[in-house]
Structures are given as structure tokens and as C-alpha cells.
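New here. Your pick:
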Amino acid sequence: MNEELLYKIWQGKKILELPLTTQSGESIQILNAGSRNLYSGPDFLEAKIRLDNTEWQGSVEIHVKASDWNLHKHQTDQAYLNVILHVVWENDQDIFDEIGYKIPCLCLKKFIANPNDFISNSNSSFICLQLLADVPFKYLEVMKENCLQKRLAEKTSGVQKLWESNQKNWEETLYQTLAKAMGFQQNAEPMLRLAQSIPLSLIYKYRDSNLRIQALFFGMADLIELFPEKHLIEKLQNEFNFLKIKHQLSDNFINKSHWKYFKLRPHNYPNIRIFELGKLLQNNVNLLSFFLDIQELKSLKIFFEVHSKNKSKPFGEQAFKSILLNAIIPILLLYGKHKGNMSYEKRAMDWLNQLKPEEHFIDKEFTKIGFPPKNAADSQAFIFWWKNYCQLERCLQCEVGKFLFSKS
């Protein structure tokens, strides 16, 4: 037995047919297996299960032996505090998280005699693969357009909540959204919390002092010792100690254990992106006006390259796409909606169509079936299509599936 095999069992459909229980006797219903995490932290994120009559949403960690939890030192890692289920093959030890909570355990060996019976033999992620040749192209196009609109609505919904929590302050919302996007997938949430811990007004107050702005960001991030310019670390610590007392800041808002470095290239390390965020905010007081006024996509990319720490290797294509897709475009769409100005939506859609495809594994799956993405708009549509229809087998709600069922 190995963990890769356990991952496949957990993600498979056959496990849903079993009457599962935890080691403590609670019934388990898997509502959503979650998405595979390829970076540091728990194996599956955003999973949803029901234990007896209570629904839980969080992460799932998978090991061959339960004792591997302690062997890998998860018990001292705060990134594992939101684990809602420990899935193991052998339960050789009760496991507790950092604060002493006993984590519910599912021992698969009790329910599965032959693991290979619980792994799909299909090489395709699409149930309808053998029937796609009979589907008129227009149904694929309609479904793609529907999914793009839902994907963009999903993104703007998150920004809308931030905007409301910020008392409808657009500048503060842009600042926090931009910070989250600069954390990329691995560090998005701690970057958002970092921005929320430092009001934009405080950054404006000290915009004439790069040292104080960086002291605020690195001090609140608990990463002063990783400041890129090593000769300034002592000064940075002294400045943060002063600012913390003066502005009554809490220096335990974020812990250094929240930041992820595993499988990241050095220029994407959180300490580098935090440094760049500080420089960007210091040099550009009215970012909202700038993003609303700029028309050319290439000009926008040059703007971010100017604020890159590593000038020999500035913001790459993927990094730029992430910031555009997760911050600037949602802000443009939401701002245009509230101001009744359709020109912002048009510009956002134009930029989406100008960007190259994202080239993630979902793009590759759609390419295999002869429906390759032409641009980033298609990539975004495919993400929503895949996660909300194909993975959940919601064929009756999919335009392609409805056509096939009506034909049969």
C-alpha cells in the first residue's frame, strides 16, 4: 500500500457506496472529496463531509499509517489545524492536532478488501467521452459561455464580500484583493490576512519611508528574518517594535508557519512578493484610478515588471495572469456593475480574450477531447465546467449532457 493508491481510492466513486464510519463509530458521508493539493499542507483542500448529522468543511490528510502524522510533524504545524478527517490504511495510533483535538479517523482497511476494485479503469475524466462525436459544436460553445459567466460571477462575489466588509471602500478592497492575488494559490489566504492587518491609511501615512512600510509588512507577516536586504533586518525589527506599540498592532495575527514555500520557485517566495507589494503600494497611492484608466494590456504588464524584486526575471506570464484574473478583472467587473459603466466590463472581457490559455491540467483534459482553449477566457470557463459539472457528474445540468439524454 502507498499514499498514491489511497489518493485514487479517496477520489474514486466506488468509495461513496460504502457505509463508512470513523474509528469512534461516527457515520461518514463524503459530500465532496476536495481538490488535490500539490504543495505543502494537507493532501486535499475544501473537502466536505458529514459526521453523523453534522457537516464539516476543511482539509483531508491521507497516510498509510496513522502514526505517519507525527512522523511528518503535522502535530506542530498550524497548517493542519483545519483537517476534518484523517484517512489511513492502518490505524496504529490516535492522532491529535497542535491544540490537542483528536482528529476523526477513517481506516480504509476495515472497509476495503481489494484496493484495486475501488480505482476507476477509465483513462478519461469525461463520462460522455465516447458520445462527444455526436454532440453539435454549438452545445459545447453554449456551455463554455455559461461556465465563463458563472466563473466570473464567482470571482466578483468574493470581491463583493470584501468590499462590503470594508464599508464599500474601493481602494481598501483593491489593496486586499491585489495582496491576495500576489500570494497566488499557495499563499493567497495569508496574504489577504496580512493586508487586512495593515490598514491602507497606515501605508499612506508612511509612504515616504520604505523602511517603515516594509517593517509593517514583514513584522505583521512574522518574516522579518527573511527580508531580502539582509543588512536592514535589525533596523527593520526596531522599526516594527516601535510601530507595533504606537499603533497597537498585534504581532501574532499571522504565524510564519502559515506561509508555504514547498515547490515554489525562489522569485515566488512569499517574502519576495511581500517586498514587491510594499514597494508597489508605496510608489502608487491611487492604484484604483490607475487600473481604471489603463487601456493596454501590455502597459499593465510593464507596470508589474517595474515593481518586481528580481529584474533579471520579473513577473512571468503565469504570475501576471494570476494577478489579472484574480484581482484586476474582478475589480473592473464589480466597479463597472456598481457604477453602471459597461466600458469596464468590455475592457475586462477584451483582456481575457487577449491573454493566452493558462495551460493547467484542466486545459489539457479539454484539449484531449478536441476542444482546446483559445485564450484565458476559455481556461476560466473550463475550470468552472470541470469542477462543478464533470467532477460532480452533474450531466443533467450540463448542456452537453442534456443534449445526449434528450437524444437517447
Remarks:
- Residues 137-165 form the longest helix (29 residues).
- The longest strand covers residues 54-65.
